Known about the structure:
Homeodomain-like_sf, transcription, 24 strands, DNA-binding transcription factor activity, RNA polymerase II-specific, alpha+beta, Homeobox-leucine zipper protein ANTHOCYANINLESS 2-like, 18 helices
Amino acid sequence: MGVDNRTAFLHSKRMANHGELRLIGENYDPGFIGMMKEDDGYGSSDDFEGVLGNDQDTADNGRPPKKKKKFHRHNPHQIHELESFFKECPHPDEKQRRELSRRLGLESKQIKFWFQNRRTQMKTQLERHENVILKQENDKLRAENDLLRQAVASAICNNCGIPAVPDEISYEPSQLMIENSRLKDELNRARALTNKFLGRHLSSSSANPSPSPSQGLNSDVEVVVRRTGFCGLSNGSTSLPMGFEFGHGATMPLMNPSFAYEMPCDKSALVDVALAAMDELIKMAQMGNPLWIKGFGDGMETLNLEEYKRTFSSFIGMKPSGFTTEATREAAMVPLRGLALVDTLMDANRWAEMFPCMISRAVTLDVLSSGKGVTRDNALQLMEAEFQVLSPLVPIRQVQFIRFCKQHSDSVWAIVDVSINLSNAANALMFANCRRLPSGCVIQDMDNKYSKVTWVEHSEYDESTIHHLLRPLLSSGFGFGAQRWIATLRRQYSSLAQLMFPDIHGEDINTVGKKSMLKLAQRMAYNFSAGIGASSVNKWDKLNVGNVGEDVRVMTRKNVNDHGEPLGIVLSAATSVWMPITQQTLFDFLRNERMRNQWDILSSGRPMQAMFSVAKGPGQGNCVSILRGAAVNGSDTNMLILQETWSDACGALIVYAPVDASSIRVVMNGGDSSHVALLPSGFAILPGVQTDGPSMQPDIKENTSDGCILTVGFQILVNSVPTAKLTVESVETVNHLLTCTVEKIKAALSVTQLGSVE
């Protein structure tokens, strides 16, 4: 009955409009005792005689209303003395009230009323604080309850393949007792069979005891059916009954492969972390100064680390030694409904497709709760992702985290990520170069079919692994920060809106062909980004060759059976350099097909022309194009170039790949693009950031930051035989191509002080 009473008490404390976002803007100060403003209610001496009388009634009866007495406002000295005495004695007797009256020049009745009002206000504030705590506890219990209900409802019998609970379970105590008795009988029969056929005695003490109601999820209970195929509930710290061992995943034909991951920590702990992270995200998204300090003009917001430490307590451990903190916040209007964005963020594949240049790999390890219906309220899942910046000088951040979705009202959602340690290793090993503090977004539907998205990114990383050229970019937040997430989100959804009314120049292409072409370009850009960041999606082997500089990353891999690229040995080379020109100037030059012969060695100096292009967003340069070299001596070429370009406030991309003319014709006619073999090369431009002074928004058109960072990357087939050996000459040839390309760009733009990395 203890659980029932507790639940009833929690429900009685819930407010009528439960769904509203209550924690936003509600900053309770636990030190409110004695800290009262001068104009608070208890700071006045109100003679309630006459004020609470039947003035309205007497007026209705024709008699003149009684004259109300005027309020008397205490002065600061009187309030200070009363507060000091209240701290010592909140219930003064008649003698003490007379003494205060004499000392402060107030009537004894005024002293009495002041203390009554003061006690009432303290009681109200204490109850409000208690309500906040009870609401948080109630949310936790609801999340745990949803988790258990979904786990039980989705249980599948490993032997017969049918639901372990065929009908809807009644949660009445009498029904639970009957179900418990039935499960005990089944356990006894299973124990008898074990003793008979396996020659092994399974005592009742070795079986998994049923957790007491007071234990809840803290008893480390987890649903074994989703990981072992055994119907029922089991304590995660004990071995499976009946002597079965599924340590290597054997004899598990009915198990979903996504649940083969064994979660070493109990679900209750994850629910606690998720709720605490959600509370911190909401406050981080809503609080202003002094937590967030605004830069000059249009400057970026900077997190006040001292204020953050005073406001929040760490629930994932202390910051590892040598780690640096980066924290950013950005808000923008996005042309989509909130629930559509929620669905995208809660799906690992769609999330990675939405941010292809930021996420090189994403996978859902386990779904602990799928949430309530289509709203995804209380959805909780374990995930792993690799985050990247398009530069070989910045290592990939591999992070394991939980993602929690909460619907706070009919039009407000919040999704939060926070790193967790899913292994028994020490924190130093688990968080090799980064850990993700509560980060995510608050999504609010607006009336104009737009959504306001407030994004918060907060992480700690090992700065010693970052090249000095890229450190200002990362510390400013333009590497992994909220500004980059928001810029990419807006560009992607503007692209989707643009594709509904495509602006196609050049040769005619139908809708199916357009989609096939864009899908091919998407794969090209994704493979280029994965090659720059050395993602684990493609198993690259890093090479160390004597004649190749430290700032150049050279990798190789063998393609044996992927028909999406040429078969054989693929070599990748990439580097990043400082360019003392603006991002917009460099982007316009590299995307211009008429100037391509000034830097593209493979074009043999021939001018290029665009056959057609499909716009992917507003402004010039956001498009997918097919380029063709001009005919030489009346002979046409059979080789075309597929190119995608885009630019936003946080960077730009120019990626291209040579394609066979016959293959691209098939794609333009709506054919399958997955078998078109291509190897991408191209450029990524990152904004330059000042190393000193206030944090400013870099301007891609003006030279406010004195330059930008150019990343050059090539992927080239050096041998069509996968079993062949890679030669040093091949590596030096690709390295020479990289160096010559940078020098040609420098010469074409008359850049006399090209900043090479040191």
